[in-house]
Amino acid sequence: MKATIYDIAKEAGVSIATVSKVINAKGKISQEKRSEIIAIMDRLNYQPSVIASALTGKHTYTLGLLIPDIANPFFAEVARAVEQRGHELGYSVIICGTDNRNERIEQYISVLRQKQVDGIIIGTGVGDTSMLRDNAWSIPTVMIGREAYAGTIAHTVVSDDRQGGRDAAEHLLGLGHRRMAVLSESLEISSSRERLRGFRERLDEQGIELPLDHVRQCKYRVEDGRRQARELLALPERPTALFCCNDLLAIGALQAAKEAGISIPQELSVVSFDNTILASVTDPPLTSIAQPVEKLGATAVELLLREFRERQSQPQRAQTAAQGAQPQRIALQTELIIRSSTAAPRSRR
Amino acid sequence: MKATIYDIAKEAGVSIATVSKVINAKGKISQEKRSEIIAIMDRLNYQPSVIASALTGKHTYTLGLLIPDIANPFFAEVARAVEQRGHELGYSVIICGTDNRNERIEQYISVLRQKQVDGIIIGTGVGDTSMLRDNAWSIPTVMIGREAYAGTIAHTVVSDDRQGGRDAAEHLLGLGHRRMAVLSESLEISSSRERLRGFRERLDEQGIELPLDHVRQCKYRVEDGRRQARELLALPERPTALFCCNDLLAIGALQAAKEAGISIPQELSVVSFDNTILASVTDPPLTSIAQPVEKLGATAVELLLREFRERQSQPQRAQTAAQGAQPQRIALQTELIIRSSTAAPRSRR
DNA sequence: CTGAAAGCGCTTACAG
DNA sequence: CTGAAAGCGCTTACAG
């Protein structure tokens, strides 16, 4: 059987309280006892049960991460970042693939509560706010890549999507493009809205129009991007540049262009968003707005830890609506990565 | 505060034992009491603490998954499969990105033990067998995509890598290729060895030689594939076909060929392995040996569950070396997916 | 500096 | 059919 704190105590001829203290480096223990006990723990290969200590000490050192799909390269990278930073700080992470389905989200949050995770990071759409609101006061929560919902007490870490959209526009404008179109994800997602908004904003400033039918909403699959791009490319006044709200959609656009015999970047420029591994692997490689995934994930974890500390220091208020600090919102800078999918439009060459 | 079993019991005017029984559907409880208690649990939004129940009932309903890198598309897909099947069966999964580093692996296994996960799925290299051996008797373990180590009591689910290698060879041979080369991952990894072995075997059967310097070991990064491919393509008798042990390496090969002005598939055929999303996204799309990831993940979870049951039914022997059933080894079929990176060699056209 | 005791939220024989 | 009590492996005041 695995050794317990009792085994150690008996072996060392002390009480379990004493052993507990050396484990947690609390209280004063004489140097000799301490080292003797440590030696015994080593010898018996003793590892304190997180389960038991969670039942009293309250910490499970486990975080929950909700994302739509782990196999989507962007979220896979987010997951890695969260997991890495979490591990550095002593936390494990439970992944939850929600598929953006509300029932699943509810199930997961409920499971995470039952398992008493210390915090939750949400990178998925949450249709029903109320659930989140209920949850928020009990488990520290941070939204990653999505805006927090009104009435929710959650911190937020996002990329500066709007600026990213602006940068994409700026790049294309600089190359001389005037007729542009957009492949967007569902505009229900805040980040998509912001990217589009930034893009359009910059165009507006230059007095360039972005007709409504030049903005297409897609799911986040390659196939959707391809279909919508096909239609866009069949327009009488074919756009010379496409801004795609993620790499997957951009790949769809690349495929549609190829099918139509339209060469990239000579006849069509494509800018994508996310800069996942996919962007570097296509032909031509995609010019893309990079999200600082690493930092996104790390920041989310750090915000959570800060929240833990704050709640501990003001335990009385921990259950009131006013607990914790004010929810923070952190927007991280994106970066334009220029590859080979963009160039000046032909007419201008 | 969250409601506990005591709150429910008090509210219902029964003992906590009774409440516990209705939670677990154990023992006989009168229909009225049962429904009354259930109603109260609903009303108080009661959710039993997994932590507390784990301390007695022994199940945490949590699995650990060790993989080298979650952001690697192949492992991301494995993770999704494991997570999905796990969720269906009532288990959460903690992801652990090991980066193939031994210290990390040890840390993780130790953490997972402390958290009393019910089982561990290992998809990463494990340098030091002894650790695994020590672990195996205490936590049910299954290897996924890697062979179990000698002396280890772990089940194994793999793709039939050898057959996959054979199929790749067969495909290339059928197209008429004779001069071939291989981009492999480290041959310390059993799956890489098997792929190469199957490939070479089939060539041997046709009396075709695969010179030693035509087999290059790479890490699993695009850049390595590119560098090694560059060398291969500079050989005086340049190979007409390349078998790459994963998609990443194949992408490197594609890039090297492009740099060298070698057109694919006209002048060089490329077959990859894994068939991740990357294979469908390159230009040209890659002919690839698909691993049945979905099934791989699901099977791993199922083997674990079976092991749980077996250990429960023979608790006496659970701590002896002979516990559980014999370790199983399941090899799943791969599938050749033909895309556009392979064709007959030029000389033969 | 050290220990006895209560308690965390459950489950599980064992009585009744 | 129902409940009292012990126990799971820890932590935390509180005494000494």
From TrEMBL, chains A, B:
UniProt KW Protein transport keyword: no
Domain HTH lacI-type: 3-57
Pfam family, one: LacI
CDD domains: HTH_LacI (cd01392), PBP1_LacI_sugar_binding-like (cd06267)
Keywords: DNA-binding, Transcription, Transcription regulation
GO MF terms, alphabetically ordered: DNA-binding transcription factor activity; transcription cis-regulatory region binding
Highest taxon of source: Bacteria
Protein name per UniProt: Transcriptional regulator
Organism: Paenibacillus oryzae
Taxon lineage: Bacteria, Bacillati, Bacillota, Bacilli, Bacillales
